[in-house]
Amino acid sequence: MADKRRISDNLEFSTAEIGALAHLYRGEVYRSTVWRTRLDTTTNWSVVTLGVALSITYSQPGASPLPLVLVGILILLFLLLEARRYRYFSVWRARSRWLERNFYVRILQDGDLHTEEDWQKALAEDYSNPRYHVSYLMAIARRVRSNYLWILLIQTIAYCGKIIVHPFPVQSLAGFVRRADIGPIPGELVLAAGAFYIAVWISLALWVTVKDSARIRKRGGVPTMG
Questions:
Q1: For a 10 Å CB count at each end of the chain, is N or C smaller?
Q2: Which ranges of the chain would DSSP assign to H, the alpha helix?
Q3: Taking CA 180 as the corner, what is the angle to CA 179 and CA 182, rounded to the nearest 5 degrees?
Q4: Buried b / exposed e across 19-47, counting CB within 10 Å, b at 16+?
Q5: Rounded to whole angstroms, how far apart are CA atoms 209 and 204?
Q6: Residues with Cβ within 8 Å of residue 98, at least 6 apart in sequence
Q7: d(Cα 190, Cα 12) in Å, to the nearest integer?
Q8: What pLDDT, on the 0 to 100 scale, is given for residue 121?
Q9: Contact 79/142 with Cβ under 8 angstroms?
Q10: Within the chain, what is the greatest distance between any pair of CA atoms?
Q11: Is 133 a residue whose pLDDT tops 70?
Q12: Which pLDDT belongs to residue 1?
């Protein structure tokens, strides 16, 4: 009979099965690492494009602040792309973390850690019927909270700073609004759109923070698959 090792009170794996799970875990960690790198790539693109826009806008006092407005479209595109990648990353991360907690920790410790009942069935179900673990909106909100809110805040501050100090320091609020004019579009409309733009991202970051906290409280701090 093959050697067996008890992993939980009601489950045993053979040596061959443990080896197969080790290879499975290594594969999931590799995939999560690859997708994590892809997340970093789109964030880097956003930072670089914002840097280019800052360089153009602040290159001389008479330069237009319009590049800082237009770069927001590119940043939004990168955010949507990154949110899609995050949905894939969350699957591989959840699976590898599930194996770590319910399989490897029980091997390293002497059964002191509580594990989920039928955790292996939950993992098998995730492989049998793969699905995203987070919605697209939640993926966007999490990426905004982690990275993009700060990028967008820098963009907003840089835009306001540009029209305040160039080509010469603004003298009044009315002058600030006039400088925000973009061709036939009045400054009031431009600034209102900008305020709405940043308010949406701040609201998303706050929403997902509350949502994640509620999920943790609902499950009593115990991890779940996804």
A1: N
A2: 15-57, 66-99, 105-108, 119-128, 136-143, 149-165, 173-179, 187-218
A3: 105
A4: eebeebbeebbebbeebeebbeebbebbb
A5: 9
A6: 119, 122, 123, 223, 225
A7: 65
A8: 84
A9: no
A10: 87
A11: yes
A12: 41
Query: What values do phi and psi take at 35, rounded to 5?
Result: -75, -30
Q: Tell me: the pLDDT tens digits for 53-76?
A: 999 999 888 888 889 989 999 999
Determine contact, residues 42/28, Cβ cutoff 8 Å: no
Residue with tokens 């990648």: 85
Q: Residues 5-28: what's their mean pLDDT?
A: 74
Task: Check if the beta carbon of residue 113 is closer than 8 Å to that of residue 105.
Answer: yes
Is the pLDDT reported for residue 139 higher than 70? yes
Structure tokens at 8: 């939980």
Q: How does residue 223 score in pLDDT terms, banded at 50, 70 and 90?
A: low
Nearest by Cα to 134 from 41, 224, 3: 224
Structure tokens at 119: 């955790």
- Residue 4 in tokens: 């067996």
- pTM beyond cutoff 0.85: no
Token pair listed for 137: 């909106």
Which single residue is written with the structure tokens 């590049």?
Answer: 67
Q: Are 69 and 182 in contact (CB under 8 A)?
A: yes
To the nearest whole percent, how much of the chain has pLDDT over 70?
A: 88
**Cβ atoms of residues 158 and 101 within 8 Å:** no
Tokens of 120: 């292996």
